[in-house]
Structures are given as C-alpha cells and as structure tokens.
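Hi there,

I know you've been waiting on this one. I reran it after we fixed the sequence typo, so this is the corrected version. Both the input and the resulting structure follow.
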Amino acid sequence: MTNHDDSLREFWLLADAARTQTAYLADERLKRLATVPLPVLRKIFVQYRYFTIFYITDLALLVAKLPFGELRSLLADFLNDELGNGDNEAAHERLYDNFLLSIGIPAEELALDANQENMRLLLDLQTRVVAGTAPYAVGLRGMGGECLCQVYLAAMHAHFVDNPAIRALSDRVSWTFWDIHTGDVDIAHREKLKASVETLVTSSPEQLDELIKGYRDAKAIFDKFWENIYAEHFADLRSAPTTERAEPTQARA
C-alpha cells in the first residue's frame, strides 16, 4: 500500500460518520439535553443559530473559491438547499428560527446573547475559508460542515427529543429543520460529498494533506464551539431542577 493509500484510509477513518456519531451519542454533555430545564435548552439552541448563519455564508465563499468541476457544482447544490431552493421561507436559517419560535423563544430574542468566544471562532472559520487553499477549505467547511455537523445534530436530536419539556411541546414544535438534518436528505448529502471528495483525492493525491488538515481543524473548532456553550449553560445546574413544565408558546404562522 502506498503512502497515499495509507493517508486516504486515515482520512476516512477520521471522517467516518458512524464513529463520530457514536462518540457524540456517548457524550455526557449531550446526554444532559434530555434532562435540563427548558430555559437552558432554549439558550443552547439560540447559540447554534449563529453557526447556521455563518455556515451558509461560508459555503457560498467555498463555492466561489473552487474551480469549475464536480465538487463545485455539488456544493453549489447544497448551498441552494440551504437557501431554500429559491424559496426564502424554506431556507434552513428560517426553518431553524421557526423551531426556536415554536419552543417559546420570542422573535426579538433570537439575535441576542451570542457567546463572544464562539463568535470569534466563527469569524476565524470564515477567515480560514477565504485565506486557505481550496482543499483545506473543502475539509474545513465542506466535509466539516456537511459530514461532521450532520452527525452531531443527529446525536443532539436523539437526546433532546427525550426531554420532558420538549415532549410536552411536541405537537406544536416546528420540526422541519430537524427532519431535514437528521433524515435522508442530509445523509444523502454526506454520501455524495464523500464520493466527490474521493474522486478529487484519487485524481489529485497531492491535495489530501490539506484536506485532512482542514477537517481536523473543523472538528477542533466545532468541538470547542460546543464546549463553550455547555460550559456557559451547564455551569449553574448543580442544584437546579431537571425539568420544567412546558410554557404556552405561539409558533410562527
């Protein structure tokens, strides 16, 4: 086996969605999403809103950065999905806002209280997309966004849906965002991207090292992003009750 083959195998082991998902499902911090009070869940969910907004912009920057070819067209298709395929009401950021509103977060609070360390991380990610090489940016925001983010959201969803407060609200929760990001659409995205990246590194093996570096950096930043959120919002729960009665809420029409 050549060094290239070894490196490629190492990369797919690193990026293997099933392994990543297993690790996240076992994460003790994620498990707490099943028991924390609803106000804490709301604060955590609002923080992810910033990641969603930055990701859409970063994906557009990545598409612009890539040369014409299969990978550019595929990522442009993903970007189109993120933006609602021409329908603003179906844009993923809008769908996520619908979810936030449906669990009782007032519209005027959606853009409040951003974790400032996380904002710096997101700005750093964006700078890396612009300044890095094309394969590095693909690892960082292509594989890092479509693959890593999807399996994390699936693991997150698996825990928070068991929270009694969410169960009490379930009939009025706007689930569309989660249906997309934990369902067949995002899984298909991940597999298509994986195949396209495989084609890229098979034809241009010199790009593999940068691709791996981008993915490693993506995972480190993504893990730090969530570590900051949990450190902030789990810190005061030692004596707090674990559940809260669901409050009346008005979902977006």
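Quick highlight: The two ends are 58 Å apart (CA to CA).

Best,
R. S.
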